Amino acid sequence: MGIVNISKLDISYESTKIVKQLDLVIDDGEFLVLLGPSGCGKSTLLNAIGGLIDTSGGSIHFDGKDVTWADPKDRGIGMVFQSYALYPTMSVEKNMSFGLRIAGVDKATIDKKVAWAAKLLQLEPLLKRKPSALSGGQRQRVAIGRALVRDADIYLFDEPLSNLDAKLRAELRLEIKKLHKTLKSTMIYVTHDQIEALTLADRIAVMKDGIIQQLDTPHNVYNKPQNLFVATFLGSPAMNCIKGHLSVHADKVLFKSADLNIDVSGYPFVEQPVDGAAVTLGVRPEHLIAELNEDASENVIQGVVELVEPMGSDTLVWTKFTEQHTLSHRVTSEDQLSVGDSFKVKVEATKCSIFDTQLTQRL
């Protein structure tokens, strides 16, 4: 079992509150990602779960057992950090088994656990090597192996891939995902990398200033952000945000901003929209679709291309649609656009997000 229940957790450094009255339940076998910008409290929260720092208030339970003040060694967890922290004079095998040897585990059990972890992480040919003879990705796999041999129910990862290059990050990301499928253990993973969060997580907890802004599946966090912070934090490039107001009629609801008029009648408003309400329309770049039909008019806007950024499989285009609104959108790599070209896009209104401008919350 690996259920983690965090209730009313406070963590402070002197007079500064880092984590504030945080409630979080992580299910057995779940892969939860703590995502947010630097300084949001995600690593602090992870360290509190691991027992590496003291809390100022609240409680942490593992499978119903209060571990708020338990030592890390008594929590039954495995931890992997951003730094590999391997002993340079020890072989891979010795590094992986060090904790077990210190704990007095018998040699036969140690050998069995190390062999199991080495096979799982494809480290078998490297067991006799020293860390200096390994690549960055191999060293991080050794660090993961060292955590695995503890045979824990809960594993904590603190930005384990941030020191690796893009290719290695992609490879290790795949290894960690396969590892979770195999072990079915609870995994809590800290990152500021959106791709890691979206590809690895069962659920994502987006944090800001020590508070969870949204806790949901990757699909919902990306497509249905609960507030403007989540909307603009996730996505590369960020969601286009356009301030305006709603114009409610008997048969339709319009979003108006400067000389933009977007029919949002099909948008799933939680409550009845209010005429004149100040709102912000959020549009992902992929929801501005190139419009080739010359006669189309509904939710079609025309502008002038200001910047073209080839991205390989597609191209990111920045187009000025009004004096106030330059928006990013995607086209296929075959679409050859140049600065100064006139271009039309259709706004997929049902896939947009609408927020209360003052409260910043999703409507």
From TrEMBL:
Residues 1-234 form the ABC transporter domain. PANTHER family: MALTODEXTRIN IMPORT ATP-BINDING PROTEIN MSMX, OSMOPROTECTIVE COMPOUNDS UPTAKE ATP-BINDING PROTEIN GGTA. The lineage of its organism: Bacteria, Pseudomonadati, Pseudomonadota, Gammaproteobacteria, Vibrionales. CDD domains: ABC_MalK_N. It comes from Vibrio diazotrophicus. This is ABC transporter ATP-binding protein. InterPro entries: AAA+_ATPase (IPR003593), ABC_transporter-like_ATP-bd (IPR003439), ABC_transporter-like_CS (IPR017871), ABC_transpr_MalK-like (IPR015855), ABC_transpr_MalK/UgpC-like (IPR047641), Mo/tungstate-bd_C_term_dom (IPR008995), NA-bd_OB-fold (IPR012340), OB_MalK-like (IPR040582). Keywords: ATP-binding, Nucleotide-binding, Transport. GO terms for molecular function: ATP binding. It comes from the Bacteria.
